[in-house]
Amino acid sequence: MAFYCLLVVLQNLMISHCLGLSGETHHKINVLFVIAHPDDESIFFSPTINYLTANAYNIHILCLSTGNMPCHIFYTKLYDQHKSFLCHDIIACKMSCIRLVQYSGLDGFGQVWSHDLLTEIISEEVISHDIHTIMTFDSYGVSGHCNHRDVHRGVVKFLQTNSERNIKAWQLVSLNTFRKYCGPIDIWLSILSAKRHRSKVIIINEQPLKSYEAMAQHLSQWVWFRKLFVSFSSYTYTNTLQRINP
């Protein structure tokens, strides 16, 4: 455990500089996570969120759907539940602000999301909260989920149409199946990969148990296979980030 803590400290020393988050007082830097579903921040981004919150950055979450099928009979009830779960996440992870978007065109698996609409929503959030840096999925979306991939395209389009804002954006790198499920072993593999690809930044989770605590707030999703995923997923222990160059 002591060795793990030492590794975390050494690896995380240069993260602020690499991500372009240095040079200002931490509490003045606003970081926006753009995600597709209400549990994405817990399943995939917890190492990065834990690192930034531990260092007093302002964390904002823009969730672009409620995670429900648009014609679900309990749509409104489930929307309220997901909003409640995300509010619990704010308390558990010390996030600053959250916005859960409810559009009929932004729900349902397999439905193509309008990139123009996503760009408009992201732009509103960036302006209203003076966002400096965006974190989101890469073009594959970690799991290949079509909504994750649309979110990436929406962020890229926002960057292309708002280049004058000089917003920095980082994507969570998708891993192959072996690395995705090798748990903490992927810490070493990620570090080795980053040494070969200098454009990548590795963030090691200082408190992996917080991933469980955050995911456990999503009661409807906290079933046995989700528990197994969080236990063995490398995204619980480390995130590999790469700059988005639109």
Automatic annotation (TrEMBL):
Coiled coil: none annotated. Keywords: Signal. InterPro entries: GlcNAc_PI_deacetylase-related (IPR003737), LmbE-like_dom_sf (IPR024078). Its EC number is 3.5.1.89. Residues 1-20 form the signal peptide. Belongs to the PIGL family. This is N-acetylglucosaminylphosphatidylinositol deacetylase.
